[in-house]
Amino acid sequence: MPRLARNARLGQTVLRLSTRRLTACLAAPALAASAWIAGPAFAQADAPQPPQAACACGADAQNVARGPHGCFPQEQPAIDVALLLDTSNSMDGLIHQAKAQLWGVVGEFAKAHKHGQAPRLRVALFEYGNNSLPASEGYIRQVTPLTSDLDALSEALFSLTTNGGDEYCGQVIDQALTRLDWSNQPGAYKAIFIAGNEPFTQGSVDYRDACNRAIQTGVVVNTIHCGASQAGATGMWGHAAQLAEGRSLNINQDETRTVHLETPHDHKLIQLNAELNKTYLFFGDVEARDRFERNQVAQDANAEGLGLAVAAQRTATKASAVYRQAGRDLVDAMAANPEVLASLEDEALPAPVAALPAEERVVYVQSMATQRADLQRQIAELTQLRDGFLVEARRELAESPDAPGATLGEALISSAQAQLAEAGFAPETPQAPETPQAPDAPKETSDTPSTPNKPATQAGG
Prior knowledge:
Largest sheet: 6 strands, mixed
Distance between the termini: 54 Å
Mean pLDDT: 81
Structural class: alpha/beta
Strand content: 5-15%
């Protein structure tokens, strides 16, 4: 049975609505006038639709099911990915590639839309084969659960170190299937990517049982062997992927040339990233606010420490639809529920907001949303130029006499692209969010001269 048919048979539709979000939707008619920030841009329906009031949850007419008591946001299409990385002594190059290429890979997933919607991306991280971990647990550790907090994922990746050499592929796949809360949304893309260099046959859990269990639950397993293809074949990396309807690739885990390709646009992107950070208004208790803010800056520093290319990729991802902080940041939270401020105590608000009178707080958050939308548009324009530059640079590298071998990020992307298409996702470039307009902003009159759009500035000449 094809994987998508199996997913449809096994999956059950689940409506995940928080109480606050549901309340906002039920109260949509009364709150429509105060829905000050535009939601994501979605594809237009084939047939013309009658005008409908904006939903207070931030979704437009193409993303809601409407009933007599209000509207109910449909689920974002789910993408769940588990990275299982070998952290034995020989895998320093693999871990370096994972750190350096995380944002490029995440950026590719951000382009995978379905029915005009950006995905709800969650990524989990496991390490295995590290003798610093308990032998009783198979030298395996779940580093993060499936999470949409990409800064937390980056922090976890940068915490990894290598040691030892007992790699139990079957057992770590089995652990990922057991411990993670995989989506049961019909048509969700669910995949394991396991990378390492030792035979798949090691350990007490038979890899064949683990891979068969994976595909029976709608999770494909892609194997990424670090080393020569013949060693991967004899080590059953290809057979494991075949059993779980995934792909098997071989990479050079020590390759760095394609990992750190810089462009003339990178400096400008990093400057825009610093401005983007100023628009975040983290909420929660003092400790939580401080932690979110410090970790965002720390992961910027981690990326920049690996080079301009990595920092630019992170900036591009932060401006995309998958880098959303609705549970932590007031701008994203109010895009989902304009009434969120009323539900927060003053002690939970960031200092610039808490210092304002209650009636001025929404306006201040709105101003941050306006600035962020403008910065996101600038970043999106530069990222398109950057991507075009990289296509040519990579083509020249591929044609050189000493063409570099494939890397972890390239293997992840090439494996996922066809599988995402099979799951109904299409590679679309997300539209930049519309700039929210203040209620009292003056409208342009007929005698106001129009200003043509300026072309994107190319940093570095």
